Amino acid sequence: MAPVMDLARSPLALPFPDMPPVDGVTLRVARADYKDWDRADLTYAELAEGTALAGVFTRNVCCSTEVEMGREQVKLGQARALIVNAGNSNAFTGYRGREAVEQIMAQVAHHLDCAPSDVLVSSTGVIGVPLPKDKAQHGVAAVLEATPCSWEEATHAIGTTDTFAKGATASAMIGDTRVVLNGIIKGSGMIAPDMATMLGYIFTDAAVEPQFFQQCLSAANERTYSCITVDSDTSTSDTVLGFATGKADNAILSSFEDAGADAFMAALEDVCRQLAHLVVRDGEGATKFITVSVTGAKSDESARRVGLAVANSPLVKTAIAGADANWGRVVMAVGKAGEPADRDTLSIGFGGTCAARNGLPVADYDETPVAQHLQGDEIDISVDLGIGDGRATVWTCDLTHGYIDINADYRT
Amino acid sequence: MAPVMDLARSPLALPFPDMPPVDGVTLRVARADYKDWDRADLTYAELAEGTALAGVFTRNVCCSTEVEMGREQVKLGQARALIVNAGNSNAFTGYRGREAVEQIMAQVAHHLDCAPSDVLVSSTGVIGVPLPKDKAQHGVAAVLEATPCSWEEATHAIGTTDTFAKGATASAMIGDTRVVLNGIIKGSGMIAPDMATMLGYIFTDAAVEPQFFQQCLSAANERTYSCITVDSDTSTSDTVLGFATGKADNAILSSFEDAGADAFMAALEDVCRQLAHLVVRDGEGATKFITVSVTGAKSDESARRVGLAVANSPLVKTAIAGADANWGRVVMAVGKAGEPADRDTLSIGFGGTCAARNGLPVADYDETPVAQHLQGDEIDISVDLGIGDGRATVWTCDLTHGYIDINADYRT
């Protein structure tokens, strides 16, 4: 999506982190002028030969050409370049949209002397308008000649309605070798569960077999991007790609049996969680960051679904916006989730204070600490279902006038 | 739920209809003072001996005592009285909530000299506070002595955040006998699909076997209450009850083979649809009434789910609020529904004008008539999936600042 108004920086924004270089990755940006704006909107990442590729994608069945092609490319497991177009999602644009993507792939492949399938393309912005091929061609030509840029510049260039640039970094020891993982992401609305996510990219110098890299990214996705929601709406273009250049020259990772694989997985999940949280922190109109912890569910997956039912409930989200300890709305949301639950074993808490236990309001419940907690901008809701060992944590933001402001007047 | 502010009458409100008497039904209201307010909040309907009962209820697993008991009472198929408490939903209140309901049933049963199971009780309002037994006792005593009241007075007394009284009436010929069906309903938020509905009551003088009455009400529910949504949140107390006094002395209906059964079913569905529409017209913050028509789906049920995905999408609802013909958001919502769909056979229209056909924007699409249509307050969205014969119609309202105003400051 593309900005149509000067959006104020989210009150939940975090500063862009210091991100070290990743050996084998070079970033460049240029202006394709996909919209009538004064900014870079085409981003290019050049990747060393031998870079391993992994990816997760939206489950929206009306997905874009970029997503359809990306799914195929991930099966091949290798990449030499990434192009990100901002301002036009190229979704629902039929053969003309596909031609534009193929043109970009061919142009970059010619420059790098690689296979077109080694060139990944993502696009984000308005649905239903084919990506203009002439602008793409000039933009790609310009970006291939541009001087390398910083992580923060590249992150700004992939953004649309984002009010701040979102990056995260971590490192891990594989044997004696320290590997770096840098991630950048864009997204603030049309963010929903049960899918991959917005547009996110993780770059590492680690040497990882593509299949194992995919296994790690899918697992991290389950516990991070698939556990956030802003507005329950699932984009047609959501994509997270991982690129591992192998330039760190560690002993290549191919399974969790390998020394350092656990550390690599932990660092990857750390970066993914940081990025997922940043998307929530830039949720359209968000003023509060909400963590919903569900325990005692039938299974972890059931816990995740209950957590998302709470996190997606407009009545829960507006109650938090109003700093209202309305635990009855949490009960309602648990009950509508369609998951196993028992009214009489259910407990609800805010900020560590239990408001209802075993199906009844807590005797002598003192709302004072809860009211104080809800005045802050980091809100914890805990739900214990009391019927099993399943658990999950889900993150969302509140629903405010800001969301209406941004979305009721998007294209005009 | 209970009003905490002076809510302006919905701009989509309709006048209360002229409703004829229904032989065998007497309505009375009184003040139980469940909240600190200056209004009747306890409603009583006395029903003739031999009244047949039918009902549909919320699917929220954290349902109220009233719903649990009502489900059992409906199996018995008979009723002598209905009590509706407004201002306190009595949900999530454990044994104390149950005691209050049993007390009301016993008190009314004693007065009427009937079985307690012949007395139906509904409650609506804040969750988690047991219905105060003393207030209920005084209120019931007062209502049993009150003078009969009008349909409109009773409808006001069952309301909470409602901004207007919602009633509907229809009639049908069974043989030579004209029977009357009157319905009243309350509800404006926490309205969601896949459940029975808000609190609605349908009274008829027709003679109908309870099992057939239930069959008719369940079928009507599938095409009316289960096809509306305001905010995707499903209440713990939603209930629709039907009462058939038999005082019209028609030949009793026991199956669709009976003469007049089709006419009765049509009139019942008419009343249910009118009432369902009125709830949407009073949707919290609503300024536009939206009809989503889905055709070409794999099945009718699949069409209903796709329709509800569109109707529940915050991005679609805010686009309509902003009179924005953003059909891309409709595509997104169709794609996230989790139902069979094919991007390349999908068509989307607004107000009868096709915006996208077979997966592509319509060539030379003129947005003028669409823009004009979206300025009105009755909006039609059509979705053709192009893969089957399934169809459904779903109704909702837009998502506006009014919804945030009402719900971000509900209890304070």
UniProtKB/TrEMBL annotation, chains A, B:
Its main location: cytoplasm. Its EC number is 2.3.1.35, 2.3.1.1. It comes from Aurantiacibacter atlanticus. The record marks 196-197 as: Cleavage. Keywords: Acyltransferase, Amino-acid biosynthesis, Arginine biosynthesis, Autocatalytic cleavage, Cytoplasm, Multifunctional enzyme, Transferase. HAMAP family: ArgJ (MF_01106). This is Arginine biosynthesis bifunctional protein ArgJ. The lineage of its organism: Bacteria, Pseudomonadati, Pseudomonadota, Alphaproteobacteria, Sphingomonadales. The record marks 124-125 as: Involved in the stabilization of negative charge on the oxyanion by the formation of the oxyanion hole. GO terms for molecular function: L-glutamate N-acetyltransferase activity; L-glutamate N-acetyltransferase activity, acting on acetyl-L-ornithine as donor. It is found in: Cytoplasm. Heterotetramer of two alpha and two beta chains. GO terms for biological process: L-arginine biosynthetic process; ornithine biosynthetic process. The keyword Transferase applies. Catalyzes two activities which are involved in the cyclic version of arginine biosynthesis: the synthesis of N-acetylglutamate from glutamate and acetyl-CoA as the acetyl donor, and of ornithine by transacetylation between N(2)-acetylornithine and glutamate. One of its GO terms (cellular component) is cytoplasm. The active site is at 197 (nucleophile). Signal peptide: none annotated. Pathway: Amino-acid biosynthesis; L-arginine biosynthesis; N(2)-acetyl-L-ornithine from L-glutamate: step 1/4; Amino-acid biosynthesis; L-arginine biosynthesis; L-ornithine and N-acetyl-L-glutamate from L-glutamate and N(2)-acetyl-L-ornithine (cyclic): step 1/1. Belongs to the ArgJ family. PANTHER family: ARGININE BIOSYNTHESIS BIFUNCTIONAL PROTEIN ARGJ, ARGININE BIOSYNTHESIS BIFUNCTIONAL PROTEIN ARGJ, MITOCHONDRIAL. Substrate binds at residues 160, 186, 197, 284, 407, 412.
